[in-house]
Amino acid sequence: MPDWQHSEDSELIKIAQEGESEAFGELYQRYAQIVFRFIYANLNNRLDAEDLTEEVFLRAWRSLSNYRQKGVPFLAYLFKIARNVLIDFYRRAGRSGGHMSIEEKQITDFNPDPSETAILNIEHQEVRQTLTQLREDYRTVLVLRFLSGLSPEETGQVMGRTPGAVRILQHRALSALRGLLEI
Fold first, then answer.
1. What angle is formed at CA 67 by the lines to CA 4 and CA 73, rounded to 5 degrees?
2. DSSP state of 20
3. Residue 121 near residue 105 (C-beta atoms within 8 A)
4. Structure confidence at residue 160 (pLDDT)
5. Is the pLDDT of residue 89 over 80?
6. Would you put residue 97 in left (φ > 0), alpha (ψ -120 to 50) or beta?
7. pLDDT tens-digit readout, 12-25
């Protein structure tokens, strides 16, 4: 089995396009957590975020043969898919009268103390409620920079802005967020 960890994304994509699923698996390992954090920041439910993250990578795998690298990182491609998955999710939720999962945001990786789970749930809901009060571009820049851990350059590629514009937008978004938190 080849060691994919030291391979560039472009090399992994090319190999995955030739049908090597393990190369795509390495891309999944690299980016699943980042995509998950982006989606989870836009939802109230961890289980839905996990499902939608899987949907992002399923769509990416299905469309990989059509993917052409044009100087934009693969992660930006994944974020575009994630944004579309979220839009589809909200459309379905709107038609069904507001979908909410039966199990509200459980952490399934381990058996946490119920009080820890409750604190995490409250913190996530507070952050999400505050973020929803921001303009969409402010919310997006904050999620990409701080929850997904992208650099200003990577965030700029995802948002179609220069790194300088991202920094300015981030500054304005943080100022708006501070204003909301002071109320």
1. 60
2. -
3. yes
4. 87
5. yes
6. left
7. 999 999 988 999 99
State the pLDDT at residue 5: 79
Q: Which two tokens stand for residue 53?
A: 């993250």
1, with CB counted inside 10 A (0-12, 13-18, 19+), is: exposed
Cα 132 to Cα 22, 27, 143, 145, 180: the distances in Å are 37, 30, 11, 16, 11
| Residue 146 buriedness (CB in 10 A; 0-12 / 13-18 / 19+) | middle
Quote the pTM value.
0.67
- What confidence category does residue 109 fall into, taking pLDDT thresholds of 50, 70 and 90? very low
- Domains of the chain are 1-99 (1.10.1740.10), 115-183 (1.10.10.10)
Residue 50 DSSP class: H
Burial class for 163, CB neighbours closer than 10 Å (0-12, 13-18, 19+): middle
Q: ∠ CA 81-1-148 to the nearest 5 degrees?
A: 30
> CB–CB of 57/28 below 8 Å?
yes
78 Cβ partners below 8 Å, 6+ apart? 31, 35, 56, 57, 60
pLDDT confidence of residue 91:
87
What would the two tokens of residue 69 be? 């690298």
Averaged pLDDT of the chain: 81
**Structure token digits, residue 128:** 């999400």
